Each structure stands twice: as structure tokens, then as C-alpha cells.
Write the C-alpha cells for this entry.
Amino acid sequence: VRPIDIEKFIGLSEQHPVLDVRSPGEYHHAHIPGAHSFPLFDDAERKEVGTAYKQISREKAIKIGLDYFGPKMRPLVEQAEAIAEKSGSRTLLVHCWRGGMRSQILSWLLTQVGFEVYRLAGGYKTYRTFTFNEVRKPYPLLVLGGKTGTAKTVLLQKLKERGEQVVDLEGLANHKGSSFGAIGLPAQPTVEQFENILAEQLRVMHPHQAIWVENESRRIGRIILPDPFYLQLTQSPRIEIEK
């Protein structure tokens, strides 16, 4: 299985399932939005393999990894088949942390049972570099301001319905602002995951058409906006709603 670059990987991910073979803890911290958690090792197993790699040798780590991987081969294949059936695609995209042993092993296994597999060169680390840079690019922001109760969120929704480019920062952060906070909402993502989600929205927007956002402070709950993005937000044209 040949590794592919981030541009091709992102393009294919719009049509085919992405399997994140990192441990559950790694996935929970941050992941590619829409990717399936498909761990080769659980958190304890990953720690044991990693410790052996650092303290003993690469060969020892591989043998320990194979001990854990062997009994899981059939369940992993069946899990992949279920994902493929649901998505209607026998093409799967695979990545681990740096494009190393875990994604290589799973790619080999899946090709043996007839899947077409593409592996991300550099793994999640490459994707994270992409999203980090994406949310720090200049964008043509148009800011909607006003006190709580001026229906800014509703206005943004109406603008989106009319075909305008809109990014709902509070929606992405699972937070309703200073007055209502996270009441009734799922847990907020990590700062890293928030940037991943934001990058996914920004990358598909027209670079020369205004992007509407609500005026925000630098913090949205526990989320901290990237400095360059926040600076753009404070310096972009703003429409103030009064009631």
C-alpha cells in the first residue's frame, strides 16, 4: 500500500471512510472529523508497545504488538466490512500517528481480504499540521456583533439558508456564549479538535467571498481561538445589531 499526500487523502475522504487506527485515548483527544475510531491497540497495549520500543528495541516492540494484533485480525476485518457496507465503498483510508507500523499492518491486513486501501503519509501528524496552518490563514471575515438577545445566531442561520458562507464558532465549540455557556450541549471539544473542525469548514469556502462569523471574545468556554484568526476577527468589518 503506497502512502498518499494530505491533499489526495482529504479529497478521497469526501467519498470513502477514514479509519483512525490510533488508540482510543489518542482519538478522543483529537481526530479527523468524521473518521472512525479503529484502534489496533487499546491505551494500555499502546503504552506497553511504546515503552518496549523506547527502552528495549524496535524488534521487541513489534513482537509485543503482534501478540496483541493476532487475535484481533478477524474482528478487525469484520468491523471494516461493516463500515464498508454502511458506506457503500470498498475503498478505505487508513492513518495512525506518523504513518508507521500500526497503519502499515492494518493496510496489509485489509488488502488481503480485498479492500482498496490508501494510507496517509505522515499520519495524523501531517493532518494536524494542515489544520493548524489552515485556521491561521487570512480570510475575508464579516463580523456580526450585538448584545445577548439580538438573535445573532438566528441571523447567521438565515444568512446560511440564503447561500452565504457562515461559520458558527459557538456551534463548533458546543457553547452558547457568556450568558448560557454549555447548558444542554455535549462536552466541548479540545482546542486541537476545535481547530480541526474549524479547518474543515474553512477549507471548502470560497476564498474571495465574505465569511460571516459572530463577534466573539478570544475564549469560547474552554476553547481558545487561534491568535491570527482572533486578530482578523477584531479587525474585520463588523455589523452591530441593536434591539
Summary: Residues 78 and 84 are 10 Å apart (CA to CA). The radius of gyration is 21 Å. The longest strand covers residues 141-146.
